[in-house]
Amino acid sequence: MSVASDGFTGQVSISISAGVLKLTTDNRQPTTASRLRIPDWILLLAFCVFFFLWRLASFGLIGADEPRYAQVAREMLARHDWVTPTLGSVPWLEKPPLYYWQAMAAYGSFGVSDWAARLPSVLDATLLVFAAYWFLRRFRSGCALDGALMLATSAGLVGYARAASTDMPLAAAFSIAMLAWFAWFESGHRSLLLLFYAALALGMLAKGPVAPFLGALVIVAFAATQKSWRILRDSLWIPGILTFLIVGLPWYVLVQLRNPQFLRIFVLEHNLARFGTNVFHHPEPLWYYLPVTLLGWMPWAVFAVVAVVAAIRRLREQDADSLNTFLLIWIGVFVLFFSISKSKLPGYILPAVVPGILLLANYLRERRASRIHPALAALHGAVVAGLLFATLMLPSILHEHRFIWSSAATVPLVVAVAAGTLASLAILKAGPAGLHLAGVAPAIVVLALAMRFAAPVLNDNLSARPVSEALSRMSHQQLPVAVVLVPRELEFGLQFYRNQTIPRYELGRAPAGEHLVVAREGFQRAFARDVPGRRITYLGALPAQKVELFYVSK
Question: How do the domains of the chain map onto residue ranges?
Fold first, then answer.
């Protein structure tokens, strides 16, 4: 099988002859028995459906944020309130509303479910892939399909496209804004500058002032490298600024008028305090985002780093590509800014995944005819082997909560090493063109294996969905549920799946009437003291999550 792309043609040809499948995108007519031409947009859509949408509900909502954001959107929809986010009927003012609005629309169209809660991120990631394709085809023809496919298969995009969170809406809005700005910079079309301001306003509605602030930093730094402050003057366009204010400002005004505590909670506590202090208990070392960024670029990380290094070396050259400079600044601003933050989470760096992949696409366009050093091919093969081995061992790791070497790991190791070797050989034989097969094929295999084998274990160990389903089987009444010494992730998950506020016994909130209890293993006697004289019936246990289920009478 051979794969190649050409940004000029906009089409992919699949030809079949003597049992051999060939993909090509040039204008030559293949001499084959049969031929099928597939437009790029159909191929991209198929990849987005597979990587972002396929088996989207194979595991339930996990972590604290996914079920919490999903429940906020449900409550806003139930109240028909598009202004004030609430959780348990209490204003929840930590995040702006863009994700909630998207989830409300998904719930209205498909009903409330964990699948619908993740749909906004799927659509945002898909829109971002197509935006990257359009940008590359229009401004760096010859690598449009390459860049879009690499972006669609990058681990950072795939992971957050499958999550009910605010990270993907921000990454999509911010990235589209930055691409629109650079497109305006090269073409001079004011409509693109208008798009920049509108998308930046959506970024502010996705996660707050970090979008316009970092966008301004990127543009100022780029103008400095070009030694032209006229770039900044021309960027400050009155119709664009008015568009930004019209799109981004009304919700902030309305939510403040209805909730006078909003600015204190949102700006002071969840922006300034989150950046400057460890009040939310997410401390990580200064270098944290270097490996996180590399993981986000997988399986393209080796060559993305090569592209970054090559672009840095050419910065001082007269013929240095201004796009490479812009993308380098974009990456650097995000990595440096969040590295000095006292609170660090992986999703913060997601917008830096996009420029890294586009930088790689442009690098491959410039060096399509060159050979790849054997050491780089070997490193890429090692990455492929590592990803495949980790995927095959993930069910065992989730069961044991740690990696344990045993004879059962021998076969996955051999398979992973073989796959990595094949990937290296494909690159050595075909050069940059072989990177398609050596990157996309392993990405497809890794995702398919993860959804088939790891997703059920992930669901059983980390999601509240099986706990909620067990409660429903054991009690057909929709009784209140309380928890005892369980992780907050399980508490928020039950809140979504049961659609009710979940009180905690340890906080003195035992329900007065009959109810169900989800307690940490071995703590029946501890919570029994809080309901003296009431009958407690043991219903069963979920060993995977180390919890026991009980019924408490009136």
Answer: 46-366, 374-461, 465-552
